[in-house]
Amino acid sequence: MMEQTATAAALQIDGLCVSARIGDRSYKALDSVALSVERGEARGLVGESGSGKSLTLRAVMGLLPPNLEVTGGAIRFRGQDLLADGGKLLHSIRGTGISMVFQEPAVALNPVMKVGQQIVDGVAWRRGLGRRQAKELAAELLTQVGIKDPEHWANAYPHQLSGGMRQRVMIASAIASQPEIILCDEPTTALDVTIQAQILKLFKALKTDLGAGLLYVTHDLSVVAEFCDSLTVMYAGRTVEQSDDLAALIAAPAHPYTRALLAAVPRIRGPVRRLRGLASSAPPLTEREQTVAPPMVPIGPGRQVAPFTHEDERFFSRDDEA
Amino acid sequence: MTALSPFESRTSSSGVLRKMLRNNPQLLFGLLIVGVILLMAICAPLLTSYDPTEQDFLSTLQGPSADHLLGTDNLGRDLWARLLYGARVDLFLASVAVVLPFIIGSTIGALCGYFGGWFDTIVMRIADIVVAFPFYVLVISLVFILGNGVSSIIVAISIISWVAYARIIRAEAMVLSATNFMDALHVGGLGVPRIIFRHLMPNVLSQAIVYAMSDIVANIGVIVTLSYFGLGIVPPTPDWGNMMSEGQPFFAGGIYTLMLIPAVAVIVTSYGLSLIGDGLATALRVKR
Amino acid sequence: MTRSELVAEGLSVTFPGGMRALRDVNLRVGEREIVGLVGESGSGKSTLGRVIVGLQHSYSGTLTFAGEALDPRRTTKQRGAIQMVFQDPYASLDPRMTVWQLLDELLSVHRIGSGREDRRHRCEDLMRRVHLPVAMLDSRPVGMSGGQRQRVAIARALAVEPRFLVADEPTAALDVSVQARIINLFADLREEMGLSQLFISHNLAVVRSLCDRVAVIYRGEIVEMAATDAIFEAPQHDYTRQLLAAAPDLP
């Protein structure tokens, strides 16, 4: 294992800017995004569609679509800038130091490869494992993600599994290389509530067992509230608020956008109240401010918020008052 | 000119067309090639003063000259005139022979996709039987039974090639049926004919249209082949196929043009149509 | 209790192949009432919705709507009375048609409105009712956001002046922030038009914030049905308790 700097977070994103080329102009898709994830920490990254939350994950993985490029900032893994040497470091880290779990396991898994083989494919090759050892590792990983009778299921093909099991397989292949950071892109959105609860429980266990850091992207605050330690909120390509203590942020949101986002979440407990919808989501890329985002300012221990001048009501939709 | 953005949705239809052509060089070049050939076929009487069937035994097998742009054949007929009038025959026939199977096949396919059940099973078994025979064997035997000439060619091709359209449309319709698309129309209380012809078909036709372009190419091949074997267009009516077959004996004698000129015409036309097909495939990809 | 609008008695559906999707389901939805139907995938909740709107023809049991028995094959008028909003706003709208064409077609088929002018006015009213800009009548669903499309789908369901709405997971494909506005819209439709609704969802929190009563469906059977408060505060059935324990919530 590599030497670890005492102060550097496992994953640190600093002032990350990503531009989209549309026609002959370029627009800011991500503007000065900043966040960090420690080992053993689960950080929720929350925002609406188009807020740039998934794009942030893609930038970390070096999986940006061809018309998008990183134009500034740094993505540090254990203190080393992944962007510095033209992507060479990123390439060696991808899938080993950092891995990713996608929303649609049905799409992300290879339909014609047995799941056991699929899980250990990369690792077995890298570590030079023999057939028997690879099989044992696959079974071990499947057990770790809570699949009973792993020897049987290792020989199954993805279409023979239920949605929940497929996502477990996805997770098993993500943890095969014992990564320090696991990026999760809405991995439970397509699942039933009871299955979702099981998967969230699994993530919680993996965080402790592996000591991995999780960056968990979703639009649903109640999902991250279930199991994340810390929270970052994104709006229109910018990080607007974050806290190392998720409960503290939810109890007392500082940014008006966070407040609006919270008011839209229906609750299982507490008094029933009318929800407050958000105003039409973030402006399209081409209509966003082209000024550089001012950095977030600290407002407490482990707590930052982007400066805001607009009044609260901007983010609330008007039609609900009618 | 404003920047084009994937987020913009409303543009005028002429703007859409212009944008489509600019972003789609395949479609543009294909339309140019085929457009020029079509124009030449339509304007044939203006581009040559010769009658394509008029024989002139005083000037047979001549090379290109000011009088005869591409020279003459063994009967002294002007090759340029025969090429132009041949284009009329072949392109018209190839297009008509696409329209019929397109309409029949698409309708049958949509009905199969919509109704499913026994109707679908029966139609698809018939389709299986039709395509079980080698294509050319079937065409040639059908034309042999029906007799030479334009109408037999069209009928023979239609009997076979509706199958492809039916299968394409059926598959696409089944994909749509699996979504809420049809349910929403049923709940709206719309009648079955309206659902099939106003909603289902227009949304699944694009694949069939793309296929139709390559089908025209195939049809040109069939017509030319049939004529080459003496089963299609009967001489003296000019046609690229019988031009080739008539020119063949002279190929060995060192006079290549008689056979090469119609062959090049077939290749260029097919290339243009293929470009249009590929271009349309890109342009018609349904945005949802 | 209010008068019954929709009554389903002993509904059973068996799919070809023997899968029993619904077993002896009894359900009642009162006038101006919103009933939630909660269950997981494969529970039969969508099948029940499809039987009620007339998309699933083969079933046993009886359906009564506004005192009138419904046959599996319905008249256009009966179809119009019970409308449906689907989960996927991307699939359920014809992408080639403008919103005006989508709505106008339904008005014409159901002979609502006198002349084009009147239909146009009605469509403009529909747009206002679902909180969409009237100008959007002339644009196509392509390029609209998920929330906007779902509003168009709701406008289309409302166009034929229904008395009853079945909403099948109408917010499952939407962001939570957009979901809130759609839920509020369903609540307003009841307040303003007295529209009774069956709201099908796997999301308990959503159902709690909208519905008067909740039915919990598990493997084709309704295992518990009670007032919303009772379901959430004193669930009786094990499966209901399981669902509640699994549902994520803010602290």
UniProtKB/TrEMBL annotation, chain B:
Domain (ABC transmembrane type-1) ranges: 87-277
Record-annotated membrane-spanning stretches: 27-47, 91-114, 126-146, 152-169, 208-230, 250-277
Record's keyword annotation contains Transport: yes
Database matches in InterPro entries: BP-dependent_transpt_permease, MetI-like, MetI-like_sf, OppC_N
Keywords: Cell membrane, Membrane, Peptide transport, Protein transport, Transmembrane, Transmembrane helix, Transport
GO cellular component: plasma membrane
Gene Ontology annotations of biological process type: peptide transport; protein transport; transmembrane transport
Entries under Pfam families matching the protein: BPD_transp_1 (PF00528), OppC_N (PF12911)
Domain of life: Bacteria
Electron transport found in the keyword field: no
Coiled coil residues, start to end: none
Membrane topology reported for the UniProt record: Multi-pass membrane protein
Location(s), subcellular: Cell membrane
Entry similarity comment: Belongs to the binding-protein-dependent transport system permease family.
Protein name listed in UniProt: Nickel ABC transporter permease
Organism: Pseudaminobacter soli (ex Li et al. 2025)
TrEMBL record, chain C:
UniProt GO molecular function: ATP binding; ATP hydrolysis activity
InterPro entries registered for this protein in UniProt: AAA+_ATPase, ABC_transp_ATP-bind, ABC_transporter-like_ATP-bd, ABC_transporter-like_CS, P-loop_NTPase
ABC transporter domain residues: 6-244
Family, similarity comment: Belongs to the ABC transporter superfamily.
Alphabetized UniProt keyword annotations: ATP-binding, Nucleotide-binding, Transport
Organism of origin: Pseudaminobacter soli (ex Li et al. 2025)
Biological process, per Gene Ontology: transmembrane transport
UniProt xrefs under Pfam families: ABC_tran (PF00005)
PANTHER family: ABC TRANSPORTER, ATP-BINDING PROTEIN, TRANSPORT ATP-BINDING PROTEIN
Top-level taxon of the source organism: Bacteria
Protein's UniProt name: ABC transporter ATP-binding protein
